[in-house]
Amino acid sequence: MSETVSGQEALQRLRDGNQRYSTNVRSLDSLLSYMHRAELSAGQSPIAIILGCSDSRVPAEVVFDQGLGDLFVIRVAGNILAPSQVGSVEFAASLYGVRLVVVLGHTRCGAIQATVDELEGHPPPESENLRFIVDTVRPAIEGLMATDLAKDHEALMHAAVRANVKATANHLRHGSRILEKLIAERGLLVVGAEYDLATGRVEFFDGSEA
Q1: How far apart are CA 173 and CA 110, in angstroms?
Q2: 138-164 b/e with 16+ CB inside 10 Å = b?
Q3: How many CB atoms lie within 10 A of CB 119?
Q4: Helix, strand, or coil here: 191?
Q5: Cα–Cα distance list, 71 to 14, 25, 35, 101, 172 (Å)
Q6: Is the separation of the CB atoms in 51 and 105 below 8 Å?
Q7: Number of neighbours of residue 45 by Cβ within 10 angstroms
Q8: How far is the C-alpha of 59 from the C-alpha of 53, rounded, in Å?
Q9: At what angle do helices 153-174 and 110-119 cross, to 10 degrees?
Q10: Which residues touch 70 (CB under 8 Å, ≥6 apart)?
Q11: Alpha-carbon distance 152 to 15, whole Å?
């Protein structure tokens, strides 16, 4: 079982793990972590909370080369926030003493693409549930459509993914009394990051210097 660690130490472990993953290396600890099933059945102490996208190509434990019990992972299309996701972060940070939350977006995100499509004038999704995802993402990126980025789709998508990550991270920092208190009093760190599907690398770009 992983011990409780500081936000910065946990962040470094994730950086190191992603470096291994992106260079096609796996740690022995992560590979053999299944051997701790019995021990983990009694409780858990993950080192980080990952709020990531549901995309099948971005499994957090693999991307960060972590093992069973190391990460508390919440996955939802577009790494958006609803009360259930905020509550899940609050639960893990409060109950297990986790001191790092990572909002993990990724390149070529379908939820971001669907939102950009609608902002460009394409018909909205027919499903009310899919529209909820698009409507949640839209406020973070609609301002980009009034800039020169609108003329360059790749640049627009890159900026949109990051803007959405930043909006989610800021919501976690300032939209929950519980998390605000943990940030102020216990050193909880909330950072934003982007995973590159092509290279396997994660870049931490929002809040990682805190």
Answers
A1: 25
A2: eebbeebeeeebeeeeeebbbbbbbbb
A3: 18
A4: strand
A5: 10, 19, 16, 10, 18
A6: no
A7: 16
A8: 9
A9: 110
A10: 2, 30, 33, 46, 47, 48, 61
A11: 30
Asked whether 157 and 108 are in contact (CB, 8 A), the reply is yes
Q: Which residue is listed with tokens 């991270």?
A: 169
pLDDT tens sequence for the chain (210 residues): 445 689 999 999 999 999 999 999 999 988 888 888 898 899 999 999 999 999 999 999 999 999 999 999 999 999 999 999 999 999 999 999 999 999 999 999 999 999 999 999 999 889 999 999 999 999 999 999 999 999 999 999 999 999 999 999 999 999 999 999 999 999 999 999 999 999 999 999 998 775
Q: Are 77 and 129 in contact (CB under 8 A)?
A: no
Whole-number Å distance between alpha carbons of 172 and 123: 31
Is 113 in contact with 197 (CB distance < 8 Å)?
no
